[in-house]
Amino acid sequence: MVSPVSDSASGATIGSRESRRNEFLSSTGGLLALATASCLLWGSAFPCTKIGNVLFGIAPTSTSSQLLFAGVRFFIAGCMVVVAMSIMRGRPLLPKATDWKAIACLSLFQTVLQYGLFYPGLSRASGVASSIIEASASFIVILLAALAFRQERLDARKVAGCIVGFAGVLLVNLRSGGALRFSLAGEGLVFLSTIAAAMSSCLIREFSKRHDPVLLSGWQFVVGGIVLTAIGLATGGKLQPSRPAALVLLAYMGFISAAAYTMWSMLLSANPVSRVAVFGFMNPVFGVVLSALLLGEASAIDPLRATLALVLVSVGIVIVNRDPKARESARSDECA
């Protein structure tokens, strides 16, 4: 039997550990390191998805197979998070009865709706328009956090930072001769998937006040992955790996989601949404650069244009994060 003194000491140790973790996550260095790592991983997902479609024999218009591919990927990602964190914590990372409602809600927006809308839309949309629409998620997240969830205030500094960051995304995507178009069945679905992604960021921030963000991240992938896999199979989706490299790539793509979303969720649990969301402008920029390198399309990107885009995105991030009053206000709101 554990004595009350032991229980108290154990609680104090856990509380101290949590405090140190949150201090690191809310620091400029911690935010910069984890957010940049997340965006690099997500950026690599763009070319890896194209490579995966070839290795698994998925046609560009085969939405059912794309959803099946996504479902298996996210199920693997969820298992990675659950197993890794269970080992690290020395106990199974299992949800309590009170966690399942949050897991279901988060998986609906972050995995099922986001990717269930994104893949069909992407197959009918231009790559340039899709990248720009996806980048608008940072705007939408900040607007939802301020106007719908009342998690923070909207001010000119945040809007200015988003505009500068968005300009970087436009610069790297609007190549000479590129034309933008919009269709409800293509770009319209991509835009709806972006809204679902933005909702999930705000929900993570909200749910993290009462639930473990890492547990939510892992189990929402498990649930969302099962749902997408079921939809893909029910609609005739097939995966036909052509060689062992296909399975290695699938494992890496699972790791992308597991690591990136877990780090992102942890950052959202310890920071105002706007401080984290603005880093999302780095995703399409990294995606374009890594696509050029991994797909052998280096001639398709101008190094100067890519550099200027990264500078603009970085400036936008600095503008949003430069005001120390934002952190103090957020902390006082949480303590109130």
From TrEMBL:
The keyword Transmembrane applies. It is a multi-pass membrane protein. GO terms for cellular component: plasma membrane. SUPFAM superfamilies: Multidrug resistance efflux transporter EmrE. Residues 33-173, 186-321 form the EamA domain. It is found in: Cell membrane. Keywords: Cell membrane, Membrane, Transmembrane, Transmembrane helix. InterPro entries: AA-Vitamin_Transporters (IPR050638), EamA_dom (IPR000620), EmrE-like (IPR037185). It holds the Pfam family EamA. The chain crosses the membrane at residues 24-46, 66-88, 100-119, 125-147, 159-176, 182-204, 216-234, 246-264, 276-298, 304-321. Belongs to the EamA transporter family. This is Permease of the drug/metabolite transporter (DMT) superfamily. It comes from Parafannyhessea umbonata.
